[in-house]
Prior knowledge:
The protein is built from 17 helices and no strands. With 422 residues, it is mostly helical. Residues 1-13 and 22-28 have low confidence and may be disordered.
Amino acid sequence: MTLVAPPRGDSATGAPRTTLPAATTATATPPDAAPREPRRRLALLRATDVYAVLGAAAASLSITALLFTRLLPFSGGLGFALLAYGLFLGLYALLVSFDEDGPAVRDRVAAVIAQSLGLLMLAALAFVVVYTLWEGRKALPHLNFYTQDMASAGPLDPLSAGGILHAITGTLEQIGIALVVTVPTGLLCAVFLNEVPGRFARFVRTIVEAMTALPSIVAGLFVYATAILTLGLDRSGLAAALALSVMMLPIIIRAADVVLRLVPGPLREAAYALGTSRWRTVWHVVLPTARSGLATSVILGTARGIGETSPVLLTAGFTAVTNTDPLSGPQVSLPLATFEFIKSPEPTMIARGFGTAAVLMALVLLLFIAARVIGGRGPGRLTRRQEHRRVLASRRDAARFAARAEQRDAGSPASASTRSAS
Length: 422
């Protein structure tokens, strides 16, 4: 006997419900239905944009070449580039206006200007790096360039003699001392500006903003007048580090101040709601959240200090001998050595100067990588060692809770009665 389920009807009337087949509902369309709109493309770059850029560029170059060679008495590469760029913007706006309205045209032109300026800055940076490496290619392959100083080498000696060991040593010691002074001081000042608002904090922020534009020669003269002439400190690497600290400190404070302002307020409020004090909140919540930004601020300050020449020349002097004692005696840095080498008319000294500049760029890159490794992890992200310690701590906590539960069960009345009955 086979049971057949009755058809499902309407709950109110009990009448059978009429349904259309699936194929019919999927394919049938009303005859008077409107046509489907074309699907909008979400890609930022379209073929028409590429054609407009290429066409405007080709037309601007052609018109500029015609004006410079046939119609007008113009000459010079800079004028050619400026005129071609102006014509390119005008022609690009004209081509875009054929398909878009006024706001879209202005948006496209502004985007092209921003992107072209970015490419110009990238091209300038690439030119500086490539030109420095190319001019210093003769000095960089020599091993003695990194292991010797210029104590026994002169301007007429070949590149197989002498090196920049004294400049590398001076730069590392000076920038190390400057970082020891500026990093804790700058971060504490930035925390003070954010956590203790008031009239004095506004005054300190104004002084810091004014010091960011301080000329380097003024910082060198300040340390020379106070530390060397007044306090009797020798011209040494320590004095140069103090001058570099004056240059680096406002950069670190200003950048760290901006980063700490970006920490979300609800994080602080949640910590305060748990009963945490202000400075414990700063140490465990604010600083870990802004760790990558604080590392960037330290990088900016280091890049400002490591490339200064005049403060080192005023406070540490110049020497061709390696001086590992930053407390006494003149000490040279990589920028100062580059300046002294480039002044010489000898090709070997010029090659040494460009090689020194290339080593300086490599040193800045290494410091940048080290800072990113230290502060590049976001909030809440742990290293493998930290995760391993957390797992071990969790296992110890679980074992402790289990032992405590066993002791509680052993001391309960039910367990005692069970033991007496047995």
